[in-house]
Amino acid sequence: MKQELLIEQRLLLTPQLLLNLKLLALPTIELQALIQKELETNPALQTTEEEPEEIDRRPWTADRQRLTDNGERRTDNEEYTIADLIPEDSAITPGEAEASEFDPIETYGTAPVSLASVILPQLKSELTAQEIEVAEYIIENLDEDGFLAIDEEEILQVFKISKTQLKQILQTIQHIEPGGIATKNPQEALLVQLQILGYDEKSLEYRIVNHYYQPMCKRQYSIIAKGLNVTEKNIRDAITNIAQLEPKPARRFTQTNPVYVTPDFTVQWQEDKLTAVLNDDLLPQLRLSRRYREVLLNPKSFTKEEVSFARAKLNSALMLIKGIESRKRTLKRVMDYILSEQKEFFARGMQFLKPTTIQAAGRALGIHSSTISRAIQGKYVETPFGIFPLRFFFVLGTGNIARHSLKDKIRQIIENEDKKTPYSDDEISELLTKQGIKISRRTVAKYREEMKIPNCTERRSA
Fold it and tell me: For the RNA polymerase sigma factor 54 DNA-binding domain, which residue ranges apply (predicted)?
């Protein structure tokens, strides 16, 4: 298995691997924003559309005249800094480049999408019609950040359901896209998102958010490190992972900043073969600056400071280019898996959606399940039947199967049974368990009744 995918081996998380995982979690439109920011801040990174630079073989030394910010030429008695190495068309200094933060754009694309229109299609395969009504009520009562704005007691009174039922409905909503929706606060939203990404309760990230949320927000790393008996470096590394999450799940869906969906994939037929095209034409083709490569090729012609600066910028640019290629490979593998598992769905429609899990995808691809979670996070695919989140194609957890798919399986078992000795609900439950689908006799009976299929006694007499 490739090292870039072994995220369960936490000690192997190199800077390149950390960047790969960060890029993998970004939708195409947000990756475009990150690349643009890097192009603005890293002079060693260029697009292939830019004209190749002329190699200036003269030494970049302090006695060489350069333009100051106001256009005047510097004289050789003026003080020079490493900022002089930045091309004149760049508007950022090295210090700013190191400190700059990525701020993904909030609105882009062809059509605005409401929060409800993203959530409800994902729930239809997980909840009953009655539970959907409850879910709609919950969605209508979310605040602008995506948190539940009413007491759970109100929901119980309105719909006359049990606390257990409400808990199950809320958990289902919270674990779909966008992760952490309908939680009570940012801390709970982050915990849900960590679970979605495969972090268990023993992971450092989960323990920090769960037990040291306020110190984390205040950046009190020493307090957290002492409390969890780990080093401050461990804490900083874990918080770097936490910082990639979204503490306000509905941030992009507010009226002031409506979200626009640009599909990351388009499914289409090519010569009677189903293919998925990665919509990365929004991303510029990147390359390393010839000017900065020349510094490393001829280090004796430049000062140590100049060589060090050029090496750092080139390394940063190369890591980004490699990370983007790694992201592309992983996304393509995951999407190809979805195509192979859901061929009937893409060809014939919703009723042919098959149940599959993130864990099953990970085993099939030799990729850790948390990497699969990152790959599908916030990604969308355009199909002949509409635009769907990639998470839509995976059921929640290892033992849960989409409701409509379970009904199909139960129906198929009954249709193929010996009419003289039809299966009881217990026997159907056992057959499904042998297929790796855990389902109780009561649930089988419930689904059978919803499909208006008689029990085994009535089927035998019929």
Answer: 309-460
List of residues 6+ apart from 378 with CB closer than 8 A: 25, 26, 27, 30, 177, 178, 389
Q: Are 221 and 232 in contact (CB under 8 A)?
A: yes
Q: Given CATH 3.90.1150.10, say whether it is the number of domain 403-461.
A: no
**For the segment 82-105, what is each residue's pLDDT rounded down to a tens digit?**
233 223 333 222 233 333 332 222
Instruction: Please give the Cα distance from 39 to 288 (Å, whole number).
Output: 11
Q: What is the pTM of this model?
A: 0.55
Other beta carbons within 10 Å of 28: 21
State how far the Cα of 447 lies from the Cα of 462, in Å rounded to an integer: 20
CB atoms within 10 A of CB 410: 25
- Please give the full DSSP string across 309-342, using - where no structure is assigned: HHHHHHHHHHHHHHHHHHHHHHHHHHHHHHHHHS
Conformational region of residue 74, where left means phi above 0, alpha means psi within -120 to 50, and beta covers everything else: beta
- Amino acid 208: pLDDT: 94
β-sheet with 265-270: strand ranges across: 273-278, 265-270, 380-383, 386-389
- Would you say 395 and 356 are in contact if contact means Cβ atoms under 8 Å apart? yes
DSSP string, 77-106: TS---GGGGS-TT----HHHHHH------S
Residues 6+ apart with CB under 8 A from 431: 413, 423
Encode 300-311: b = buried (16+ Cβ within 10 Å), e = exposed.
Answer: ebbbeebbebbe
Question: Are 80 and 62 contacting, i.e. CB atoms less than 8 angstroms apart?
Answer: yes
> Is-contact 173 276, C-beta < 8 A?
no
**pLDDT-flagged residues of the chain (< 50):** 1-11, 55-111, 255, 397-400
